[in-house]
Amino acid sequence: MKIAVAGAGIIGACTAWAAAKQGHSVTLFEQDTAMAHTSRSSSKLLHGGLRYLETGQFALVKKALHARRFWLKHAPDLCRPLELLFPIYARRGRPKWQVGIGTRLYDFLAAGSGFPYSAWLGKAETLARCPTLLSDGLKGAFSFYDAQMDDYALGQRVVEQCRRLGVSVAEHHKIESFGQLAEFERIANAAGPWAMALRSLQGGTPAYAIDWVRGSHIFIDRFQPQALMLPVPQEKRIFFVLPYQGKTLIGTTEVRQSHPDAQRPSETETAYLLAAYNAYHSEKLTANDISGSFSGVRPLIKSAADPSNATREWAFERVGNVLHIYGGKWTTAQLQGEAALQELLK
């Protein structure tokens, strides 16, 4: 079957990959270059999403926890298991019992994935691993495992696999009308943040709405000895402090915006991330310590007033021979691509 996939982010690339593996003739269209936008602007984690357990997304978390293994197997040079610590403070943030239940449930859902189980570390060991963490009120930390990736390189690896299987990758080729794709029997709209623009070409009311949520990160030019997951003070949100390619990566924000295009992190966002980091560390950071920054727009299915609570699941809508793909997350992109192909071929 002759298939067109619009959008060469990780979801579109995985959809094209799935189709090519089944022997279909596939063209992957991209308005810019492959992996140029959201897919290269993640937190660099392949993770189940410990915080998604609080919103009851158990099925998604289980899928994602097992999906980590696929990427580690297929690209061990671009991914690695990563131990994270979730510090617990007295009278601050989530209580020890709550996080403990979460990490045990994470272990249960990850059973058979090959990752180590979570563990409790006392105060002394936590500080030995993270010497700059504030010690006042610190009880210890829960250790748990996810994985880290080079998102851009891993995405390019998928595109490379597509090419090896005969997929034609047409970059700098924007789809203005589905009439441009009249020669194709099936079309997948995997345009991510721009999926609604393509959906509008067919008219009618879309089955889903998209929340454009900007996630910003900052780099600090110093080595980070231990990956951390921390609650944002006075909020339910969490943020990460991660070692990444010899630097410290801090993120992310979640800012709803009215358009799909990414923009530079705002001063408000960088100040927010610095304040969150400084609330837990004795060595304070200032704007002068920031060596780089980036942001990406996540196309989440609109499902909650607070984007932090929005589902990270995916959904499909079929209109004629076009399959519109909404939502999803990096970790489960391969599974989503396979599922999209099944829907496309119906």
UniProtKB/TrEMBL annotation:
Q: Which InterPro entries match?
A: FAD-dep_OxRdtase, FAD/NAD-bd_sf, G3P_DH_FAD-dep
Q: Which residues form the FAD dependent oxidoreductase domain?
A: 2-328
- Report which superkingdom the organism of origin falls in: Bacteria
Annotated signal peptide:
1-18
Question: What are the required cofactors?
Answer: FAD
| Gene Ontology MF terms | glycerol-3-phosphate dehydrogenase (quinone) activity
Q: Which Gene3D superfamilies does this chain map to? A: D-Amino Acid Oxidase, subunit A, domain 2, FAD/NAD(P)-binding domain
To which protein family does this belong? Belongs to the FAD-dependent glycerol-3-phosphate dehydrogenase family.
What's the protein name?
FAD dependent oxidoreductase family protein
Q: Which organism is it from?
A: Neisseria musculi
